[in-house]
Amino acid sequence: MPLATLDRTPPPFFRQGPSALTKLALCSALALFLMAADTRFKLTHPLRSALATSLLPAQRALLVPVELVRGGGEYLQGLKKAVEAERNSQAQMVRLAERAARVEQLAAENTRLRALLDLRPSLTVKSLAAEVMFEAADPFSRKVYIDRGGNHGVALGAPVVNEAGVLGQVTRVYPLSAEVTLLTDKDAAIPVLNARTLARSAAFGGAEGGLMMELRFMAGNADVQPGDALTTSGVDGVYPPGLAVAKVAKVDRRVESGFARILLQPAALGDGVRHVMVLEPMAAQLPERPAPAPEPDKPVRPGRGPRR
Q: The pTM is what?
């Protein structure tokens, strides 16, 4: 039987209803109707609400891993920022503490400088401001070095004072610096005047390991009491009169020796001092002594010639 004569139409049992084109048209019309009905009459709104409500737990459950990952990243970033902020805060606190310490130091230095400026008008001699550079390397001496020397007009033996009183005396002069021996040095001595009794004496350094001074060769019954203020007497030709030197700290009257051991607390402490004032010695203000007049030639008696 030839193949062209075969009937290729499906049997009635396998027929599928309307054609595909018909189904497309019906579905398109239904979609347009639903869209129009939903837009105009809100027919699918309750269905959409119910579906969204039923799917909300599932959505929340699916978002949990995402939120955990996002929250973990934000936590790590926040922790890093917090650590950096803490480091910056600590560095800023250190800078502020250093600045506060510097401000306090400058305020104290300003107070001392103002006191020195107030002291200048009361001085009757020339003065030169100087700064302490360092202390002497010898542990058994009490000496400091200042940044003014012979090129600046510093003279040997010049008094050195600060706002509290006399510190010491220049004992060695260099071109650009000078050595100052403090009053508490074992080789230092200064004439003093008791402001209460107007009695003159001499104060020496080196007492109590170089921390205090003492009045030597004072009688056991001398009128000296703790708290007496001692000032420069001005009779030595070096220190101007009236400068504070020390206060009597302790009086030990020794009957067996006939002398009293009198300890003094210096008015100006050498430890921690930075700015000082170098004074011109009082002897420099004295007029120069006139040169002696030449002796007249003695007349030679007649008849007597020079001996051969």
A: 0.59
